[in-house]
Amino acid sequence: MAEQTIVSSGKPLVRFESVSKRFGTHVAVENFTLDIRRNEFFALLGPSGCGKTTLLRLLAGFETPDEGRILLDGEDIGALPPYLRPVNMMFQSYALFPHLSVAGNVAFGLKQEALPREERKQRVAEMLAMMRMDEFADRKPHQLSGGQRQRVALARALVKRPKVFLLDEPLAALDKKLRTQTQLELRELQKKLGVTFVIVTHDQEEAMTMADRIAVMNGGRLAQVAAPREIYEHPKSRWVAEFVGDVNLIEGVVSAVDAQETVVETAAAGQMRVPQGNAAHRGDRVLVAIRPEKVAIAREGASAHGGNSVSGILRDIEYFGGSSVYKVKLDGPGSMRISSVNVSRKGETVASKGERVTLSWSADAAAVLAQ
Ligand SMILES: Nc1ncnc2c1ncn2[C@@H]1O[C@H](COP(=O)(O)OP(=O)(O)OP(=O)(O)O)[C@@H](O)[C@H]1O
Ligand SMILES: [Mg+2]
C-alpha cells in the first residue's frame, strides 16, 4: 500500500487571483494575488489609501473586481451577492442601532435568517456571554462605554457564524490600554470560534501582536506576505523595512559575495559583513538594514562586541520610559538610531550628548536590501 502523507489543509480558504479594481482612473487594487488559510488570523497592513478597505469590500461582495477572481473554498464567488456569501464584515465605522438594546442589536443579524425564536434567543445569549456582555443585555448603546459598544458590534457580526470575518480597523476608536486588551480578547475569540479572521489595520504593532500572517500593501499592490517575525527580520524591500518598524539604512556597494556572507563597502561605516541570504551580486548598489535594537552603544574605548563597529558622536537621546533612542552622528556621512532598554531607574545613560561613542553589532543583525 502506498504510504500516505497528510498535508495540513493545502487548499486556501480565500484566494485572490490577479484581482484589480479601479475607481474611474484611480487604481485602488492592482493585480493582487493572495491566499488566506483556513482558521488563520490574517492582517492587512498598509498606509491610508493603499486599498485595504477595497480589498475587504471585494471579498464581502460590495465591490466587483475589474479583473481577476475571488475564490472561497475553491469556488469562484464572483456571482454571489453579499448576503449569500459566508462572509461577514464589521465596518470601519461600525454603527449600532441606537433604539435597540444590546440583545436587540445582536439578534438583528439573525432576523433575516428566519431561525426559530428559541434558537435565536439561545444564540444571542451564548454570544453575549462569550463577549462578557450578558449583564448589559437590556442597555441601549448610549449607556455603554466605547469598549463595550465595540464588543456588541463584534457580537452582532459573529452571531451569524460566518466562515470568514472581516474587520476593518475594529479597534481604532479605543484608547491604548483597552485596545491592547481587546487585541488579546479578539485573538482568543478567533481561536475559540475557529473562524478565519481578516483584520485591516494601519497600526503595525497591532498587526504584529494579533496576526498569524500579515500582508503588507503599498499603493494597491502586495508588498510582502509572511509571518510577523519574518516581515520584521527579513523585509523584502526598503519600503517594507521602513514601513514596519524603525530601521537604519546604510548605502554601499557589494565588494564580495561568498557562500557565507556578503561584504558591502560603505562610506558611513566602512566595510560591513552581512550573512548570506540575499540576491546581491558584486558591484550592486545596496542598502544594509539594521534595526535600532540590534545595535549596542558604548563610550568609545569600551570593548565592542560582534563583527561590525563604527564610531561617532552622540547627538541626542529620546526617552520613551521603557527604552531610550540614541541618535549618533557617524564619523562618515549619515547617522544611526540605537534603541536601548532602560534597565536602571536612576536615569543614567550609556553616554552623554557630545561624547564619542562606538556602535557595534553582530553580523547576523544586518540584512542587505536593493536600493
Ligand atoms: N467608491 C470609491 N470611489 C472612488 N475612489 C475610491 C472609492 N473607494 C475607494 N476609493 C479610493 O481608492 C483608494 C483605496 O481606498 P481604500 O478605502 O481601500 O483605502 P484604505 O487602505 O482602506 O485606507 P484607510 O486606511 O484610510 O482606510 C483610495 O485612494 C480611495 O480614495
Ligand atoms: Mg479603510
Q: What's the level 1 CATH class of the largest domain?
A: Alpha Beta
Shape: globular
Task: Specify the structural class.
Answer: alpha+beta
Seen as an oligomer or otherwise, the chain set is: single chain
Q: Describe the sheet with the most strands.
A: 6 strands, mixed
Q: What are the low-pLDDT stretches, counting only 5+ consecutive residues below 50?
A: 1-8
Average pLDDT metric: 89
Strand portion, in percent? 35-45%
Order of helices and strands: EEEHEEEHHHEHEHEEHHEEEEEEEEEE
Strand count: 20
CATH architecture identity of the largest domain = 3-Layer(aba) Sandwich
Helix content: 10-25%
Features:
2 domains; 371 residues; OB fold (Dihydrolipoamide Acetyltransferase, E2P); alpha+beta; 8 helices; single chain; binds adenosine-5'-triphosphate; Rossmann fold; binds magnesium ion; five-stranded antiparallel sheet; disordered N terminus
